[in-house]
Specification:
This protein is mainly beta. It folds into 2 domains: 2-213, Jelly Rolls (Sandwich); 228-336, OmpA-like domain (60s Ribosomal Protein L30, Chain: A). It is built from 4 helices and 19 strands.
């Protein structure tokens, strides 16, 4: 284990360096109510994360550059979110996380997600460095990774995995690519588990796990009459105002709404949780609102149709005493301007 820890600390860091233009056609929009989220920052380095249940194998939280990550350290390791309600999956939901795989892994080594009803396993999704596979009952479907991110190009860098489930349909994304669509998986899960197959001394990691209810922006192409849109799909680097590329699914949706409604104007509102100093949160939320406004202008929206304001922690929509409440409070809102 000491060897693994030192390897992670010395490993080169690959953040999401793709240009935003690579995500021009990205259409994944996460759910608008966060049910569970964990970035492992509340956990002690070298320990198992407190918000998860260990069901098999091993895992340990490690520090990697500015992030905390969960290192999967054995074959058939499996963890489940520590959620009180054991039947927490709605009919429509999204799952997101970032994953890292060392070079030298064989085709059996990778990360997997289990869909379950109670303790019964209904199906799952598995990925290594070359493909995604969804198995359900006796059937399975496979989608190969695009050459730009497959095999050697996959190793030793972070990849963003996004999964959208609506009733029996499953869509799977890796970075900016939609890699697999399952039209009808034939099951309705109530809970999930996540894990992986890892060789000793090699890094199989994940971080920034999020489970949210809902997904998609159903108002596209329609006359916009709501007073505001609350989004959790515009994400930033930790304690920074730099927008992550996977935010483009939500940003693309906002741009389309503005194009479909040429008289519509928005205030872009930035909101934080209550962690940290009030003044710092207010400043950071303003910087993030400004960054979103600037990105929308780059995407062709007239600056006169947008204002920006940071609210810090002053307008919570969730309980700042719980991780899920804090996650729901960290958001960007688009409030309709009437003048």
């Amino acid at each position: 284990m000491k060897w693994l820890l030192s390897t992670l600390l010395l490993a080169p860091v690959f953040l999401f360096a793709q240009e935003f233009k690579a995500y021009n056609n990205y259409d994944f929009v996460p759910g608008n109510k966060i049910l569970f989220e964990d970035d492992f920052r509340s956990d002690q380095d070298g320990e198992f994360p407190t918000h998860w249940k260990l069901e098999g194998g091993q895992g340990v939280v490690n520090k990697m550059d500015d992030d905390e990550v969960l290192a999967i350290t054995k074959y058939s390791s499996i963890y489940s979110p520590n959620i009180k309600n054991k039947t927490y999956l709605p009919a429509q939901y999204t799952i997101e996380f970032d994953t890292w795989l060392d070079a030298g892994y064989d085709s059996n080594e990778g990360i997997f997600l289990e869909f379950r009803k109670g303790k019964d396993k209904l199906g799952g999704i598995y990925t290594n460095h070359s493909y995604f596979e969804c198995y359900f009952g006796t059937d399975k479907l496979q989608g190969d990774l695009p050459a730009a991110i497959a095999n050697e190009a996959y190793h030793n860098k972070w990849h963003h995995i996004a999964i959208a489930v609506k009733d029996a349909q499953i869509k799977v994304y890796c970075d900016q690519y939609r890699v697999l669509v399952v039209p009808d998986c034939g099951f309705k899960a109530t809970n999930i588990g996540i894990g992986g197959n890892a060789s000793e001394g090699m890094a199989l990691l994940f971080k920034n796990f999020r489970l949210a209810e809902g997904g998609g922006m159903n108002m596209l192409g329609k006359k916009f009459t709501d007073t505001k849109i609350v989004t959790h799909g515009i994400n930033f680097d930790y304690n920074k105002a730099s927008i992550k590329p996977e935010s483009m699914g939500t940003l693309n949706g906002i741009v389309q709404i503005l194009k479909d409604n040429p008289d519509l104007k928005f205030e872009v509102g930035g909101h934080t949780d209550s962690d940290g100093e009030d003044a710092y949160n207010l400043k950071l939320s303003q910087q993030r609102a400004d960054a979103v406004k600037a990105q929308l202008i780059k995407m062709g929206i007239d600056a006169a149709r947008l204002t920006s304001k940071g609210y810090g922690e002053t307008k919570p929509i969730g309980d700042n005493k719980t991780p899920e409440g804090k996650a729901n409070n960290r958001r960007v809102e688009f409030v309709k301007l009437t003048k």
